[in-house]
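Render this sequence as a predicted structure.
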Amino acid sequence: MTAVRPALATEVRGARLSGVDVARAVALFGMVAAHVGGIAEQLDWSDPASWSAVVNGRSSTLFAVLAGVSVGLVSGRQHPPGPQAITRIRGRLAVRALVIVLIGIMLMGLGTSVYVILPTYGALFLLVLPALRWRRRTLLVAAGVCALVSAPAAIAIVPLYAGADTFGVQLGLVYPVITFLAFVLVGLAVARSVLEERGTQIALLASGALVAATAYVVGSVAAPVPVDAGDAFPGVPFVPEGATVGQGFAQVFLSPRDHSGSIVDVVGSAGVAVAVIALCTLLVDGRGRTVERIATPLSAVGSMPLTIYALHLVVIAALPALPQQAATWWWFVFGAVLFAMLWQRFLGRGPAERLVARIAASVVR
């Protein structure tokens, strides 16, 4: 038995992590719920009727952390390659980033009420390129710096968007680049861990849950979400009218409100994302073919996130009168699972993913 384990470990580490695909599906379905599910506006743990609001902010955070994980997986996992190979990887990621930005702008042109994350997503791929060979500690320190300056940076750029329309605010305001860069760096650090090993998965699950719980408890005590927080704009800190200097400082840096950009929001939502990724890999990867088959509906969706994300926006644009309710969300989930499983079964890689990969490969070649 001991002689076989190294070979098995090598094989698993070189294979696709189905648990990461499952986590992508969770992120996608969470964002779909925020767009069409008729969920609550604000999360209040004392009110079970508001618990559906847990997807607000945290789904897009999970999506961004998974972007960092994806970058780490394609750039050597625990052992990034040398200068020549890493340069080629950077080139392909840069081309992918530009194509994703263009796809995002086209989806914004559909005119839906959804704030499209893809332009920011593509920009993050470009910004993280210099960090591909950084150590985990360096990545986490850089993420911490981004978390510290996230709220002040968001406040500083607000004047640049004076008079901007819905199209304009999606380019860096709703999804602030510095805030989401922290998430991508955390994801890259996760990928640099031995994500395939059970011990690492348990450690990431425990640490992510502990960090998130601590952050949200501190935030809830130090800066309770104001009753008029519904007037807040996504991605921008909110200070209620009549607040003292101390209360305003607390709301900017310690608010637990989703999309607030505070230290608590960034650290807490990143902790949730790490815990979800660890839980998905713990439950799926290395558990045998039966478990992987059971997870296929989710892993199929997660294997083509760009395709599913784009398609759900096309459907929203084509059917603007869709009711905002749980039943609508379930239809979206059913349609996404059916499409992904059939496409993967007969055609393999998702159409958008295949297109982006071919363009990147041909340009870099």
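Summary. The two ends are 43 Å apart (CA to CA). The CA atoms of residues 221 and 254 lie 9 Å apart.
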